[in-house]
Amino acid sequence: ILNVEQSPQSLHVQEGDSTNFTCSFPSSNFYALHWYRWETAKSPEALFVMTLNGDEKKKGRISATLNTKEGYSYLYIKGSQPEDSATYLCASPRNSGNTPLVFGKGTRLSVIA
Amino acid sequence: DARVTQTPRHKVTEMGQEVTMRCQPILGHNTVFWYRQTMMQGLELLAYFRNRAPLDDSGMPKDRFSAEMPDATLATLKIQPSEPRDSAVYFCASGLSYTEAFFGQGTRLTVV
After folding, report:
1. Which residues from chain B sit within 8 angstroms of residue A94, using beta carbons?
2. Cα–Cα dist B109/B13, whole Å
3. Distance CA B91, CA A44 (A)
């Protein structure tokens, strides 16, 4: 059974602060790592899909890195804004590329103006 | 703007009643997933379909839950009888592969 762990569970930061959080996954049989952003009362939306060790993806002020050898990914937010407040989920395929995503429990970020 | 549509958005029902949740996947997507979000477990996979055929529903309590795709534009998740522990947000997602998931806005179910 694949275990995807995220930390911290929740995070409060001041507007303008930069922050980061972690997703851990088994390093064996790695296929891909997905990051989603989920705002309250909305649908989870895909941010990044990462497959290669050392991958770094960026979208505006949000970026993510991937280390498949040690089994972790970091999500960074530079200069947090109140609109960044959301739950950030990471997910990995259950067994291989032909199986659905298993999600972590998420990191709930609150950015205080 | 293509999106996954779920109905109803909110449902409050009494214990023992039947609940049916509906999902319209994005047109052309051949893979449909049902997930359940709870505080304790996070997003759990309940069942998924490929080309309308159920592939795995091992995440669902078999005695009370059932998932079907009567046609390519409709997926349903039914709970009968419902119990208070079924209270959660139920998400439908669709994609063109097993690892691509575009989510609907969810059905928030409260069983009292």
Report:
1. 45
2. 8
3. 9
